Amino acid sequence: MSDTRRRVKVYTLNEDRQWDDRGTGHVSSSYVEELKGMSLLVRAESDGSLLLESKINPNTAYQKQQDTLIVWSEAENYDLALSFQEKAGCDEIWEKICQVQGKDPSVEVTQDLIDESEEERFEEMPETSHLIDLPTCELNKLEEIADLVTSVLSSPIRREKLALALENEGYIKKLLQLFQACENLENTEGLHHLYEIIRGILFLNKATLFEVMFSDECIMDVVGCLEYDPALAQPKRHREFLTKTAKFKEVIPITDSELRQKIHQTYRVQYIQDIILPTPSVFEENFLSTLTSFIFFNKVEIVSMLQVKQIDSGKVNFFKEFCAFSQTLQPQNRDAFFKTLAKLGILPALEIVMGMDDLQVRSAATDIFSYLVEFSPSMVREFVMQEAQQSDDDILLINVVIEQMICDTDPELGGAVQLMGLLRTLIDPENMLATTNKTEKSEFLNFFYNHCMHVLTAPLLTNTSEDKYEKDKFVGSNKNNTICPDNYQTAQLLALILELLTFCVEHHTYHIKNYIMNKDLLRRVLVLMNSKHTFLALCALRFMRRIIGLKDEFYNRYITKGNLFEPVINALLDNGTRYNLLNSAVIELFEFIRVEDIKSLTAHIVENFYKALESIEYVQTFKGLKTKYEQERDRQSQKLNSVPSILRSNRFRRDAKALEEDEEMWFNEDEEEEGKAAVTPVEKSKTEDDFPDSYEKFMETKKAKESEDKENLPKRTSSGGFKFTFSHSASAANGANSTNSKSVVAQTPPTSSNGSSSKTSNLAASVTATKGSLVGLVDYPDDEEEDEEEETSPRKRPRLGS
Fold it and tell me: Which InterPro entries match (predicted)?
């Protein structure tokens, strides 16, 4: 059906007394057999589905409002409304309804609203008592009028009769003329009565009366009456605010006088509802439902009438209000609205405005951006990816957003929290589209990690840099003088960044894994375990907990290689006997490893830290870890003993040097196959020095590391535990634990050190050699089974780095 006269929007009133849009379609009236009567039918214009099927009940009160609205109630708490595109269509359907009910189409309400308690009494009333007799509109009658208006509010039928009488006699305009006389005479008593009268008329909840009261001619006098609340010692100055303080500025030319009048009216009526009228009591909450509807449909009409030709930074506050109004539109119209904004260049304009110094303008731009992200994250993602092909990283929209988050001057970081939520929505794979030809997820995440991630992590890397650590070390680093800044606002910002990175660990796969390993990010994050702000230390711990929770052997090898449990255990020992959230979180981390039986991590913890942890007996976590470790060691020993002795003879064993060369060659091949997912030597950020690029420099670094390892043996603290020195060098991550953890499980006692190349040679020469070092003449089934059980073969030993 292409007839625009019949085009309508269907609304229902929800529990919060707000109108919900149910869709747009075309209305018709016809006989429905199932309902046994003439009915209103609305079919959706998009797919022809039935949006509304409502029988025209002869006893239902239908109301016609604002020439294009028909409102009625089908049940006690189920109100419906049809909003017509054209007045002619509304008149046509209204005639059908009146025809069924036997009413004159000139009426605004087809039935008087009657409650059950008054129904019988109403039936007995003579025909002549349909209207209430109003007192003459004079100064000496104001008290009588006020009593009359107040008395009818408890009776629905008397409210209807009073409303009809007020409308027929043009009574409201006469009252407002009396108001002007009272104000000129400074008649305070009369002004107080007029306050009660006008407030009562508003509570009659009649759209026809609102149209009179809120017209340009009357609205300021209505506001004036409401200034004289008897409960106030002095009257309010609402008219002064509306006429002098509140200024309407046309940021876009509005040539339509009707539209301009509608905008002014809506603002003033909203002011009356929100500022002037007191919050209604439980008994009065339904009295103003029509006022809410009046404002709502005005806003819908304004958004529909506005025609925007151009977007620029000077209109940002206007567009913020415009976007807020658009939330009242039905989904199809709201989609068209935001698509129009996108075509007009809203995103490039926001990019400029969000970088401005004006805090208010920036805040408005952030609100508009949040509307756009909520409407369509894909639209924003598509824009920034296209932008990246033409612009530098510094001026990309997402980087501008990240920089605004980082530079938020609010001590509570309110703006930063809002922006972080928007970033999280943009990088959430759950709302990314996947098609047969292209996958938005992989394209956008590649873009984000290549162009934006370095901006997001910059504050984190800056505040945990090695240079800063070295300076602090010379000054004399301790618990209160650590790498982590003591500034509370900076700590809050780092916590926000960590929260976003933790989200990435959970929802992104190889992108974040590559980034963590290439930047040695976990080591840098764990520096924050030293923070005096417990919430920041907990954020760092949560980041590590999410990584371990993935049970990914690449991550596990990275953690054991870099000895990254050190700062966690140091934090636990520093916490002492205090039973707090930090203590519980650290214990839960180790308990997870025990319960999930993550063998490589269990072996690393027991071999390197058990001496320091064995005194902790208020939980059985660490004893349980040692039990798991010993069980695994026994199992490995039994498998080793099942191998024929001839294969364990040195006669059939390669020497250690040849073995290392083969393993090095094998590991290089493994890296080529697995690509970036392999544990590669940790890359430093651009601000840090490159790794030694010659063999001689590498050997010097290695010797220095070995001598440092001898000095960094566990030292007993004053509390009786052990304190470990946390090395911040990337080379330490590459050089530590060169023997595989499973090899150590089978052969070495818990008191063994982290391991070195000399230890590898000794192990290779011993009788109880690792499985990876065996050279058999034939393949044995046991060997294949063991390879399947282990995610990482012992022969895949990490390189020392080059």
Answer: ARM-type_fold, EVH1_PP4R3, P4R3-like_central_dom, PH-like_dom_sf, PP4R3-like
pLDDT for position 525: 95
**Do residue 274 and residue 150 come from a single domain?**
yes
Query: DSSP label at 676?
Result: G
The pLDDT, as a whole number, for residue 491 is 92
Pairwise CA distance, residues 582 & 585, whole Å: 5
How would you write 378-437 as a 3-class SS string?
HHHHHHHHHHHCCCCHHHCHHHHHHHHHHCCCCCCCHHHHHHHHHHHHHCCHHHCCECCC
Whether residue 281 lies inside any domain: the answer is yes
What confidence score (pLDDT) does residue 553 get? Answer: 93
Residue range 449-459: mean pLDDT, rounded: 93
For residue 675, the tally of other CB atoms under 10 A from its CB is 10
For residue 734, is it within any domain? no
Q: Identify the band that residue 542 occupies on the pLDDT scale cut at 50, 70 and 90.
A: very high
Domain boundary among 101, 120, 153: 101
Q: What are the tokens at 398?
A: 């997402």
In whole angstroms, give the CA distance from residue 497 to residue 499.
5
Q: Residue 27 is part of which domain span?
A: 4-101
Burial of 104: CB neighbours in 10 Å, binned 0-12, 13-18, 19+? exposed
For residue 365, the one-letter residue type is A
Largest CA distance in the chain: 124
Q: Which residues have CB under 8 Å from 273's CB, separation 6+?
A: 288, 291, 292, 295
734, with CB counted inside 10 A (0-12, 13-18, 19+), is buried
CA–CA distance, 561 with 800 (Å, rounded to integer): 10
For 294, residues 6+ apart whose C-beta sits below 8 A from its C-beta are 65, 66, 207, 210, 214, 269
Evaluate whether 511 touches 445 at the Cβ level (below 8 Å). Answer: yes
Tokens 């609340």, residue located: 229
User: How far is the C-alpha of 162 from the C-alpha of 149, rounded, in Å?
Assistant: 8
Average pLDDT over the chain, rounded to an integer: 76
Last-in-domain residue among 617, 637, 657: 637
Closest to 482 measured CA to CA, from 530, 534, 525: 530
Beta strands (DSSP E) in 491-552 are: none
Go through the chain and tell me how many residues it has.
802
Say if CB 42 and CB 82 are below 8 A apart. yes
Q: Any idea of the CA torsion for 728, 731, 736, 742, to the nearest 10 degrees?
A: 110
Could you tell me which residues are beta bridge partners of residue 208?
Answer: none
Query: Do 333 and 203 belong together in one domain?
Result: no
What does residue 327 show for φ and ψ, rounded to 5 degrees? -65, -15
Residue 94 contacts residue 64 (beta carbons within 8 Å): yes
For 311-338, write each residue's pLDDT tens digit.
555 678 778 887 887 777 777 777 878 8
605, 742 Cβ separation under 8 angstroms: no
Which residue in the block uniquely carries the two structure tokens 């190349």?
A: 757
Which residues have C-beta within 8 Å of that of residue 205, sequence separation ≥ 6?
159, 286, 287, 288, 289, 290, 291
CA distances to 63, 542, 580, 591, 623 from 619, rounded to whole Å, are 71, 20, 14, 9, 9
Residue 365 near residue 353, CB atoms below 8 Å: yes
Q: Are residues 451 and 488 in the same domain?
A: yes
Residues 6+ apart with CB under 8 A from 259: 302, 305, 306
Question: Chain centroid to CA 304: how far?
Answer: 29
Q: Does residue 453 contact residue 515 with C-beta atoms inside 8 Å?
A: yes
Distance of alpha carbon 652 from alpha carbon 645, whole angstroms: 11
* Separation CA 570–CA 181 (nearest Å): 82
Whether residue 750 lies inside any domain: the answer is no
